[in-house]
TrEMBL record:
HflC and HflK may interact to form a multimeric complex. Its main location: membrane. Pfam families: Band_7 (PF01145), HflK_N (PF12221). Residues 1-46 are annotated as: Disordered. This is Protein HflK. InterPro entries: Band7/mec-2_domain, Band_7, Band_7/SPFH_dom_sf, HflK, Membrane_HflK_N.
Amino acid sequence: MPWSNQSGGPWGQKGGSDKGDKTPWGSGGNGGNNGGGGNNNQPPNLEELIRQSQDKLKNIFGGSGGGRNGGTPAKPSLGGKGALFIVLAAVVVWLLTGIYTVRPTEMGVNMIFGRYTGSTGEGLNYNLPYPIGQVIKQDVTTQRRTEIGLGNRDQRNTLGESLMLTGDENIVDVSFFVIWQVDSANVDKYTFTLADPAETVKVVAESAMREVIGRSNIQSIITTTDQSATAQKVQDTIQQALDSYGAGILVRAVQVSAAVPPAQVREAFMDVNAAQQDAVRAQNDAERDASQIVPKARGEAAEIIQKAEGYKAQMVAEGTGQAVYFKDLYAAYATAPDIIRQRIFLETMENVLKDSNKVILDQKAQGAGVLPLLPLAQPDARK
């Protein structure tokens, strides 16, 4: 100990009444009364509290030393019970450090001596602490983004990661990104299989895009209407490759940001693309007009057909009636030819002259020979 029980600590001798024996508060202690301060206005005697604590520790560890009245305390010696108590306390504290918390967005990967033993979900969990056990927490809900060909343009041209060869031997500049996350069902594979998951996804995505571009022609790649199909093919290819590696990664989406020809021939390709879009627009307009005109024309055709069928039925009925009429007329003519001939003449002249203006001249009359117009065949106004 830095001071003895008789020394009174660093501030002087204990319990003395000498004015030179002072506590940190400026006056001597009166340890004979209550072991505390010299009077009611002073704080407790810290020396006495320290001394009492030392005595208790000595009792626990089995040590012995000098009392208050003098003598230098002997070095404490640890007994068997005290050492066992310290060891057990240290083991309990060490075991308690194995309690850990997993957030709702995470999963814990437990290891014992570096060997995978299982995964844990959200909440309080336990694993043997370091150095025997270890827990790696992985975020399984955050969606990560890996970009290919979206960096600085000079850097892109240097790396060449965005320039790809198409199936018809053209070069296209493709920029895209991949959205992926950790597969919660295979979090152990994600933890132990890949050293750099983001770089692995980037390399696999670039390889998959080159494979799909190499099987397609440039027109289908640079046309915006076909880029979604290209992105879906790339996503399927990336997922198959990562599954074969046992990467424990789920590919959520692949989005093509741009697919354009190289700068040297870009204007010509843009003209071709614009012409194709105009052709699609004209085709859509034609289909819209056809959807309006064709039903109308079909309705008019059906109306004409119905009128023709009605006219046909009318003509057939009239022809049938006239045939019956002529048969009856012929039978009557056979019995009285003169009468029937005269009747036919009169009926014919009636049909010819009924709608024309008529002027009757009498050749035997003297003078002009014009007779007044007779109102023949005038319709009855009452009808």
